[in-house]
Design brief:
This protein has 11 helices and 11 strands. By secondary structure, the chain is α/β, with parallel strands linked by helices.
């Protein structure tokens, strides 16, 4: 990891929050008792997704908190027999907001974290100052035409992943190479994610921390009409950031549901799906401006 990010990482405070099923962990830059910004990462990423933004963050703007989702990063895995329903990620975030009584929060979500965040924001807009979505809007939906196959695929996927394990590596660089195969961003940024996403097992080999069960196919998705209803309940101002070479489903989602929210500002920024890592400084400035407004 580049020296600049080592210093940023050292400046972060490790935090943890107990939930009924286990512990959610993360990093906070600034005072953890004065959290102003909550950042949630994408699928199979971790809190280090926001390390480049944190590098440009000033403590005077309040606490910038980056969380690991359940089964990701340093957060606990869900108990045996439990699964990773999308809606349970939303419940975890909603529970944290209630438990900690966080108010006037800027909620930042990338990819899966963005999908979760716009659902949670619709349930507790009164706690939020602003919703910043990165490469995500609305939800991935099903209107029932493929419900049978979706359910069957989901069940078979769960069954297959029961007791499964990730492969391990003799060198951390091999884990970086494996992650690079599905990355649209640079190796130094991949290394940031892999650093928190791997650990050295008792045999001295490097292994992924993420729970393999997070890879399971969702057995069901909400219908489009439900997403429309949820978004119509969202009174928080929304800023949506799109990477110029990012996720191809964002634009159709804006066309489908953009009319459902009162305050939506959409911006295109140079970069791909992980645009907040590739081009972090304007994100840090934008978040600071929102917290100060």
């Amino acid at each position: 990891m580049a020296g600049q990010f080592r210093e940023t990482l050292a400046a972060g405070t490790a935090v943890s929050y107990k939930l009924p099923w286990g512990t959610v962990r993360g990093l906070c830059w600034g005072d953890p008792k004065k959290v102003r910004v909550i950042c949630t990462h994408g699928w199979l990423d971790n809190a280090h997704s926001f390390l480049p933004i944190a590098h440009h963050w000033s403590r005077k703007n309040g606490g910038l908190l980056a969380l690991d989702w359940a089964g990701h990063g340093l957060s606990d895995h869900r108990p045996p027999g439990a699964h990773y329903h999308f809606i349970d990620y939303a419940y975890d975030l909603w529970t944290l907001l209630e438990q900690q009584n966080w108010q006037d929060i800027v909620l930042v979500g990338h990819s899966m974290g963005g999908f979760v965040s716009n659902v949670v924001a619709s349930l507790c807009s009164q706690r939020l100052r602003h919703l910043l979505l990165i490469e995500a809007f609305g939800l991935l939906v099903s209107d029932g035409e493929d419900a049978h196959q979706q359910l069957l695929s989901g069940f078979q996927s769960r069954q297959k992943l029961t007791g499964s394990k990730w492969r391990d590596y003799s060198e951390l660089s091999s884990a970086v190479e494996a992650r690079m195969k599905s990355a649209d961003f640079s190796q130094p940024l991949v290394e940031i994610l892999v650093q928190r996403g791997c650990y050295r097992n008792p045999q001295g080999r490097w292994q992924w921390r993420a729970d393999p069960r997070v890879k399971a196919t969702s057995p069901y998705r909400l219908p489009a009409s439900t997403v429309e209803q949820l978004l119509q309940q969202l009174s928080t101002p929304i800023t949506l950031i799109r990477g110029e070479k990012g996720y191809d489903k964002v634009e159709p989602a804006i066309a489908r549901w953009g009319h459902c929210v009162e305050q939506l500002n959409v911006h295109r920024v140079a970069g791909g799906h992980h645009v907040h890592m590739e081009n972090p400084e304007p994100f840090a400035r934008l978040i600071a401006d929102i917290t100060a407004s």
